[in-house]
């Protein structure tokens, strides 16, 4: 059955909230929450918060995440 499931490509036009998009990109980059937290020099709890609870991250955090994940800010917030 798993062979029937196709991986969906990340579509910048899809209506995701920031947390879902962050989680999806982080996983596609092969990073755990802890690894991303280390790259950003924040706590694991911070990543958990932004992936699951925050709906309005500040621009400084978005810029840091984009740089750490090597993606555009637009991809994170689209």
Question: Could you characterize the architecture of this molecule?
Answer:
The structure is a single chain. With 78 residues, the chain is mostly helical. Helix content is 56%, strand content 0%. It contains five helices and no strands. The chain has helices at 18-28, 33-40, 44-52, 59-69, 73-77. α1 packs across α3 and α2 crosses α3. The protein is globular. 10% of the residues are buried.
Q: From the helix content, strand content and strand pairing, which structural class follows?
A: mainly alpha
Task: Determine the mean pLDDT.
Answer: 82
Shape: globular
Strand content of the residues, in percent?
Answer: under 5%
End-to-end C-alpha gap: 32 Å
Largest sheet properties: none
Tell me the Rg in angstroms: 13 Å
Regions with little confidence, pLDDT below 50 for 5+ residues: 1-15
Element string (H = helix, E = strand): HHHHH
How many β-strand stretches?
Answer: 0
What helical percentage do the residues reach? 55-70%
Quick summary:
This protein is mainly α and 78 residues long.
Sum up the structure in keywords.
single chain; 5 helices; 0% strand
Question: Topology of this protein?
Answer:
Elements: H1 18-28, H2 33-40, H3 44-52, H4 59-69, H5 73-77
């Amino acid at each position: 059955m798993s062979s029937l499931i196709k991986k969906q490509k990340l579509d910048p036009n899809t209506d995701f909230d920031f947390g879902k998009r962050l989680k999806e990109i982080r996983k596609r980059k092969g990073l755990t929450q802890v690894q991303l937290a280390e790259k950003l020099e924040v706590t694991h709890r911070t990543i958990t918060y932004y992936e699951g609870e925050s709906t309005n991250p500040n621009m400084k955090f978005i810029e840091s995440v984009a740089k750490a994940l090597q993606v555009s800010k637009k991809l994170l917030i689209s």
